[in-house]
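User: Could you walk me through two proteins back to back? I'd like the raw sequence and the structure tokens for each, with a short line separating them so I can tell where one ends and the next begins.

Assistant: Of course. Protein one, sequence then structure:
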Amino acid sequence: MYAWGVPAGGAEGPPPPLRPPPPPLLSLEGGRMYGAAGPPARSASAPLVRSLRRPPPPTTGVSFMNNQKQQKPTLSGQRFKTRKRDEKERFDPTQFQDCIIQGLTETGTDLEAVAKFLDASGAKLDYRRYAETLFDILVAGGMLAPGGTLADDMMRTDVCVFAAQEDLETMQAFAQVFNKLIRRYKYLEKGFEDEVKKLLLFLKGFSESERNKLAMLTGVLLANGTLNASILNSLYNENLVKEGVSAAFAVKLFKSWINEKDINAVAASLRKVSMDNRLMELFPANKQSVEHFTKYFTEAGLKELSEYVRNQQTIGARKELQKELQEQMSRGDPFKDIILYVKEEMKKNNIPEPVVIGIVWSSVMSTVEWNKKEELVAEQAIKHLKQYSPLLAAFTTQGQSELTLLLKIQEYCYDNIHFMKAFQKIVVLFYKAEVLSEEPILKWYKDAHVAKGKSVFLEQMKKFVEWLKNAEEESESEAEEGD
């Protein structure tokens, strides 16, 4: 203990540090702060300092700052610990393949057991990540290298499509395995479509037997809706088409597809993906004709597919004909040139005259904007159709063509209500212009008409038909008298 200024032992020691005097009082004058003595005297030459300076803080006799270590700057932020489930696993399809092949080996060729194994394994194995590997194994027995070959150093299994028997019944059973798997794990649907597209591109790398099995399986899967018809785009690969692989594969595929459904269902599926008019592209450009397609697939036992393609080609040609016909009419081309063009298209695409007269009638009626007033539209129609009578007459050289035209007129007048009263006038005009003759008109009146507006149109035609009958009887009597 120290006494005041003297150590406890009596020896003199250094005096304790004295407390510093208090700071001088501050005063505020004219917006400035001064000490107790007031503002200092300022010489004339001394500059006026406008800054406000605060006095330094009071200091103690002992400073503790020197005893503390100077802290080094540190990086700010928060460090998160990665969860185990978020850590990305290494992509290892080989290990996945080994697990699947081992399981398939244990199940054997019992496809029911195979389906159950695949169903249960989806909870333990990452099907989403290894979908391509999974489908490679189920189809080819192992992982496929580019081109469609199996690597020699990889494990293989015989429980696959390519090692199965080459018959439709077996492929139907395998289709059920794929169907159950994809229904159970819906996310595999896209991966399976991509797999089939890839397999179709690899067709040259497979044997003929393997291609046949894949074709039958694909046809069944298309029929039951597991696959979309858009996968057939892969068959239009230039190399596959050039070597005839695409056409041969399509024969087996369509046979199994039509066997499961019918040609109408197949046509509807093709139409949905805009492939109903592309089937001839299965052949090289120099063989893309209806005749070659029909001959090839008819000889292969697919007559219904041949007829479907022929009809589709005719429909396409009809649409093109109508489009060109309307353009020629809008340009005001001479009827002679139009008639020549239409007859060439008829011969080229095998379009019968009764079909052509329907196209010509539709084209003629679409070239004008009709009046909305019923009392005026009849006069407008007569004037317009009188102008086009020579064109229509060129394609009514058969009785069936005349009857077809009558039915087209009836349907048009019924569908366009402003023409309801114009039907009889149009028929009489065409009779006078020799577009229509007596026999087809009488046949139409008797039993060849359709239900649309039947009572109205028959009533309109009653007097004219009676006149035709009388004229016909007079002609017959005159002929008898002449004899």
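----
Protein two, same layout:
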Amino acid sequence: EESNSSSEKGFLLLGFSDQPQLERILFVIILLFYILNLLGNTAIILVSYLDPKLHTPMYFFLSNLSCVDICFTTSVAPQLLVTMNKKDKNMSYGRCVAQLYVATGLGSSECILLAVMAYDRYAAVCRPLHYTTIVHPQLCASLASTVWLSGLITSLIQCSLTVQLPLCGHRKLDHIFCEVPVLIKLACVDTTFNEVELFVASVIFLIVPVSLILVSYGFITRAVLRIKSTAGRSKVFGTCSSHLLVVIIFYGTIIFMYLQPAKSSSKNQGKFVSLFYTIVTPLLNPIIYTLRNKDVKGAMRTLVMGNA
């Protein structure tokens, strides 16, 4: 009789409700980070579109990253803020499932996109004379389409398998949003198949891209060390180190969450890790790229002065 209780009554998204003081502090921090995330990433999209100097593959992919980050954070933050601000922690089953599909798809897309950006940097640094013929507009459009489509496909497969798990009336989600590993923990049947599927998907979307990125940056480092000009070397290092820093922060936290047995991590640990790659990392992207990139800072300065 309780098998359909979760779908009828929805879920109790507990979050940090067991620590009221911490919850109030986190509410303010998350709200601030979300607003800054929207402003920062929107600014990058506008600057990349309005400044003709930034109509290059690198900024095309950076605009896609900002778009993914805006959508990814928006799929989590507003619902989390609403839940944190009320005593009733109930979240409808439909909203939970929608959030599951959207967040999984966008997170997967970002994993592939960061690998694509590493390939772009590899072509720019290691094959500069052939860069425009290698990374041409048609290829950029195809790669961007692959990024979004891969996220959609893995979301449809992974989430569809997860929502079919019987929960036997279990409604308490001790997490900050509806996420695959958390719903697997909630299931009342053997989840070996789902855990294996999650592991395989994690290898494809986490380990493979990270490996490709590390290989790309191995070639980039070797090419940079051959540059005799100190100014040229520092410019390349500045651009590439920004991307590498984003990669380390994003993949480091998400690998910790997904590449481990579904029932192994502590509850609070999982919450903070998820909070980091859904709320914090999307804000760090525009900060890192803006502060460490003279082209973006110059374009923003020109845009602001032009509108002043």
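Residues 45 and 144 are 15 Å apart (CA to CA).

Let me know if you want the two compared in more detail.
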